[in-house]
Amino acid sequence: MKLGVYPGTFDPITRGHADIIARSLRVFDRIIVAVAHNPNKRPLFDVTERLEMVKLVTKDFTHVEVESFDGLLVQYVKKHGAQAIIRGLRATSDFEYEFQMALTNRKLDEQVETVFLMPSEEYSYLTSSIIKEVASLGGALADFVHPEVAERLRCRLRRQP
Ligand code: ADP
User: Fold this and answer.
1) Does residue 9 have its Cβ closer than 6 Å to ligand 1?
2) 119 CB less than 6 Å from ligand 1?
């Protein structure tokens, strides 16, 4: 049984994240999507809301679980007996940060590998931040996020002054 942990902030989950989850199921038998609290990133949605949205988007996937997590990722991975951390690589500037994180995690625990997957080209430029920007300016969100996520973005950003 190969288990992978896909960690992230998911503020909110995008079609790019969903694409990585679908691809990772071709490699792993089971995936845990681990929604990080990450208060230092000052997320728009709290962890409960982010978790709900990930659950909604992945509800039709079998072999995907969704949990929130706090603390050291390698400890979380070890606790679940997972073989690898899954991360997505976009066409833009992910490489340096991801390289640094992967090597730091390896230093912390030699047993934990990081696996990188590339999304479909149509999602390779998508970031949660850009989508929040589009939402705040009233742009169309259908190509970027699940309709329910789009609705929540509109509600949340509409309430802000
Ligand atoms: P984090 O704060 O951990 O970077 P994110 O939710 O921004 O959390 O991203 C989680 C993971 O998903 C990262 O590996 C990121 O590179 C990847 N990712 C985010 N958006 C996309 C996308 N459009 N295509 C592929 N991977 C993505």
Assistant:
1) yes
2) yes
Strand ranges inside the chain, DSSP E: 3-8, 30-36, 64-69, 84-88, 113-117
CATH code for the domain of 127: 3.40.50.620
Q: Give the catalytic positions in this structure.
A: 17, 41, 90, 128
Q: Is the CB of 10 under 6 A from ligand 1?
A: yes
Q: Count of domains in the chain?
A: 1
pLDDT tens digits along 72-88 = 999 999 999 999 999 99
Range of the domain at 67: 3-159
In this predicted structure, the answer to whether residue 3 has a pLDDT above a threshold of 90 is yes
Give the model confidence (pLDDT) of 6-22 as tens digits. 999 999 999 999 999 99
Q: Torsion-angle region of residue 38: left (phi > 0), alpha (psi -120 to 50) or beta?
A: left
